[in-house]
Amino acid sequence: MAELHELTALEQRDALRRGDVSPRELVAHYLERIRRFDDGHEGGLGAFVEVTGDAALVRAEALGDAEPCGALWGLAFGDKDLVARAGVPTRYGSRLHGLHGLHGGFVPTASDPEALVLDEAGGISLGKTNTPEFGLVGYTESDVAPPARDPWDARNGAGGSSGGAAVAVAAGLVSLAPASDGGGSIRIPAATVGVVGLKPSRGRVAVGSGMTGVGGLAVTGPIARTVADAALLLDALVDGRPYPFATGAPGSGPFLNAATADPGATRVAVTTVSPWDDDVDIALDPDAAAAVQHAAAVLQNDGCAIDDLAWRPRGYASLFGVLWRASAARMTLSAAELALVRPMTAYLVAEGRRLTAPQLLSGLSAAAEFERATIEEFAPFDAVLTPALAEPPQPVGSYDESDPERCFARQVQYAPYSSFVNVAGLPAIVVPVSRTAGGHPVSVQLIGRPGGEATIIALAARLERASGISGFPPGLE
């Protein structure tokens, strides 16, 4: 009989509802795995920065005494440590909010809307997952926690900024985890550790729509072991709530149905071009290129029409630089606080504050034009297939913040196919489709039309079924 962590979230859901397992048993199983593999010291995986085991068990007991209710009833997850949960220390990846930081540790008295939605869906939070400082970079290394490590090779980092969430899923510490993505922060770590990560359309998830941020970049979405599990969590996050903005993505859920649906006659474009190619030296790893070719062949054999996408976007590096710096400038950090944050944070805040109003308006205008042009370029296709990452996982400590501009360029070289999807506001999913000679999963990315999550979920599920890339890293079975 399979152990509980070997079951998918859907299988766990069904077992819970049949009464084959109780919420307490599932939570206790995961807490024991967290204790074994992620106990917070330097030898751990760096998935969780705070484990709330006692509270999770109390909630599990309460749920077990009630009738099953909600899409996630009895399922365990971890909150990304950028999301406030009442009574739980929230660090935001920064020593400004760490237990021994400038503010003596921050314990919120109210929960953010995302946490409330997941509670209403019947989920059980086991604690807070690791993130870099304020989620500003694409690697999960901070001053308040050990780095998040790739469970397939712990010498390497897990990517970011939702690195802890991706590690928790890949290592079997939870079956699914909510995360956020402002420039690839769901897809980069999910692809790094070989799990599924889905960035929704701008406006799709009311509690993390992207509509209130500079350029509409950051949205909330799922990381999970399987495409169907990611769809399950997306449905819980969407939760039937009315969209708070007129430009919200149109409804087409429940998305769980898409994981087993036939998308019909589907046209898929393939490209390895990134918008950074004219400004940064991008070298595509042979395994990443082979994964794209494999995925295209699988979809073509399954009846999809496959085309090459000939596009050459210009001026992207400049506009994204403006948006990223402006996003950091929104943080109201004093001079004393800036002296305590990491060099990359201080650099982005300082550069953002130097932006003039005309520069910001010009960047926003360029981003809107990039969104329009990209949607127009992609319009003939139901989905666009790209590499998920350009390079294999990088060793912990690879990103030298003493030279912030070089550090930023290295992040782009690692993941040049991510941030432009945020600027365009499109949905995208990463899914592992092949392995390296050493056995590490290699992923591809599918980008959909505006509001087109259902189509890319269906296509990703096809790839998942055909490729059969599953299982846990050695030692974590």
UniProtKB/TrEMBL annotation:
<feature type="domain" description="Amidase">
    <location>
        <begin position="25"/>
        <end position="456"/>
    </location>
</feature>
<dbReference type="InterPro" id="IPR020556">
    <property type="entry name" value="Amidase_CS"/>
</dbReference>
<dbReference type="InterPro" id="IPR000120">
    <property type="entry name" value="Amidase"/>
</dbReference>
<protein>
    <submittedName>
        <fullName>Amidase</fullName>
        <ecNumber>3.5.1.4</ecNumber>
    </submittedName>
</protein>
<comment type="similarity">
    <text>Belongs to the amidase family.</text>
</comment>
<keyword id="KW-0378">Hydrolase</keyword>
<dbReference type="Pfam" id="PF01425">
    <property type="entry name" value="Amidase"/>
</dbReference>
<dbReference type="GO" id="GO:0004040">
    <property type="term" value="F:amidase activity"/>
</dbReference>
<dbReference type="InterPro" id="IPR023631">
    <property type="entry name" value="Amidase_dom"/>
</dbReference>
<dbReference type="InterPro" id="IPR036928">
    <property type="entry name" value="AS_sf"/>
</dbReference>
